[in-house]
Task: structure prediction
Amino acid sequence: MKQLLKYSLKRLGKSVITLFIVVSIVFLFMRLMPEEGYFGQGYEKLELVQREAILTNLGLNDPWYIQLEHFYKGLAKGDLGTSITYRPQVAVSEIISSKILYSLYFGLGALVISLIAGISSGILMARSKNKFWDKLGNGYIVFINAVPAAVYYLFVQLYATDIFNLPILFNKSDPLSFILPVLSMSLGPTAGYAMWMRRYMVDELNKDYIKLARAKGLSNKAIMKKHVLRNAFVPMAQYLPASILYTIVGSIYIESLYSIPGMGGLLVDTIQRQDNPVVQALVLIYASVGIIGLFLGDMLMAGFDPRINLEKQGGTR
Amino acid sequence: MSDTKLNKSIDNIDPSLFDFASYDDNMAEKTGYSNYSYWQSTFQVFLKNKVALALLILIIVLVSYTILQQYLPNQKSPTKIYNDVTTGIQIRNHAPSKEFWFGTNSIGQDLWARIWGGTRTSLQIGLLVGIWQAVIGITIGCIWGYVRALDGIITEIYNVLDNIPNTIVMVLLAYILRPSIVTLVIAMCFTNWLSMARFVRNQIIIIRDREYNLASRCLGTPARRIITKNLLPYLVSVIMLQLALAIPMAIGSEVFLTYIGLGLPLDTPSLGNLINEGRIIMMSPSLRYQLIFPAVVLSVITISFYVIGNTFADASDPRNHV
Result:
């Protein structure tokens, strides 16, 4: 236990350094953008003096290291700053908190559906290897992996709305309009889970200890439950926490196709509008989510499989 | 089994089977020699998969047609706007017909020519990005996995680069250079090798301390030789798979970049551009052909590459050779 704590602290320390570097680089990249970008449409109408006054007011005329210092001082106090161009004068935390729940709910809904559908169809495929269901499932996996998401999302929206008479755009008060976005979002992950579940189960079923279990007379059901499923689930456990946390990032395609006011397009949108405080806050959040997700995944994997030792610096060298 | 039955089956055995065989020097020699060739077996296993073979032929035909189409007679230009001869008005949204095989788009350009021009652009991008990803990804992955002293530093660089949003790089590049195929390729190359490098690194870590490598090291083989002669051949099949997926991936990310408004300018047709144009007008059913045609061509290309890649990766794994 003590070892685990030491390991976690060490890893946390490293992550903080990584975060610091990432955010600083993004901060400096944003300062490389041309100044016109901060004014949007109004650039032509303003006098040079006015422009300079606005820039000075925003603190953008200071040398970069002073700006960076200001940013980290604000961050230490928990202040992410206020938006410049996306929604001027609104606090960044307010913008993000108004959007994050949409992405979270849609993402979690899609995750639950794809976990259930993906894992059960993976099991079905492994059990009927090289037969009809396996081939059908493989066809689905190939299609989803090969064709860009933008293309099949479009066709789902185009035809599913017609056939099932579902609303084409998201509407807060109409639960029917939630169905298509959640279903389309789960198409991709379902294929992923099914593919990995099948592969790990097939690998596991071919191992010697399964043959022994069968030889000593264990029923098929017991073998599946006690041995195969548990072992096949270990490698998948690593990605589970990250996928849960990543739901807050949202889906840029789905949210713009169904006009859901979520996080999906926010990063791209604010980068293009050079809204530095929002971009920095988002990069900070997304990067931390990625790092924490990976860490939790390792922990979960070690919990599922006692043979895994995270600290071992492997090998003989 | 009853006795009579047993006797009957014994009676049926050919007595010549019990003659002594004569000793043949040449035949004995043959058992000690195998004409196994790695690449030949790979192709043999690949050719056994009829679906992949059919798709391979399809993709060869498609790619050659894509390259040759612009030189064939009676083909229209992908960027020229066609006007009605009598009225002089642009032939907008003309449904597919004998003159315009796939119809025209909203400003009167020939969709057939645009689709093949777009496929050309997208394949170019996919190929360049794929080659870059393979070369840089494998090189860095090998060093990362094999040289322990560098592991910490490269892992740190990986974490940083992996967390910088690609959009920032794209937007910055768009300011520095004019948006073009080259800009797009540079921007996509900036981070796409990361996943490849990480993948190769994880594979190398798994096999780097196997006994045969340990023995090699004890005999004083330099690191470079161990990597190229001991480790990489072991990874051919998994690297093949990643490579084959690089082209559909690159086409997919071109579609994505176009979608968020960072793609190629409209005068350079690409599959991403065409799908984006089709998306804008998809709500009127009579114009849907402008989305469906490019989407079908794109899907055929990406699915073919995906299936061929998977089959080839399976075939290049010596465990699947007979």
